[in-house]
Amino acid sequence: MVEEVEKIKQEHLNKYKDAVKEIIKNNNKALFEDDINLLLQKPPLDSMDLIKSKLLSLAKKNNIIVDNEIIEKTLNKFRKSIKKSFLPLQSIREEILLEKIEEFIPTKKLDIIKINKKTFIEINKKIKNEAKIIINDSIDKYILKDINKYFSNNDIGNEVEKKFIGDFSKYMQKKYPKQLLENIELKILVKDTTLINGIKEQGERYLFTNNNSYLFK
Fold this sequence. Notes:
Layout: H1 2-40, H2 50-61, H3 68-103, H4 117-143, H5 158-212
Helix pairs in contact: 1-3, 1-5, 2-5, 3-4, 4-5
């Protein structure tokens, strides 16, 4: 009888851990495939496209005619590259979190799965560092390479061209990646909070069953 109860308890623990794993997977999928992906894809309105708006604004300021078709093609390649390069980041967060669940072994009656703040800080730091490299590399490769490809008129003058390239490069190397990374961090923090609450609720269900099921008496 004792062995049977222990077996049932172990099965209950395994189901609990599986449920938490599922919460993590769904949370992670929503974070990367919905929230972060939304930041990386083409905005629904041109006015919301920060890169294109900056290009057009600087072109107007410097009386430069730009090729809209070239801009669109370049931005599409840029976004496609970032989205593809971001795919491995999804597994970083999921694998670390799932490993924590596998390591969980309750030693006390009230023990439940908890992922501490330090773990999230370490994960988010790693993702941010990787994301920063990806963003900067894609900017250099697709946006800033041969920057005069955007010009429709080639006789704009060296000084005007130099000023345009300098201002646009400064924006793309500093302000734009900073804003994008801050938005990504915000999305992650929201999902971290959601995940913490989801794991907590699952732990409460686990304890309730442990304390109230006649099978464990």
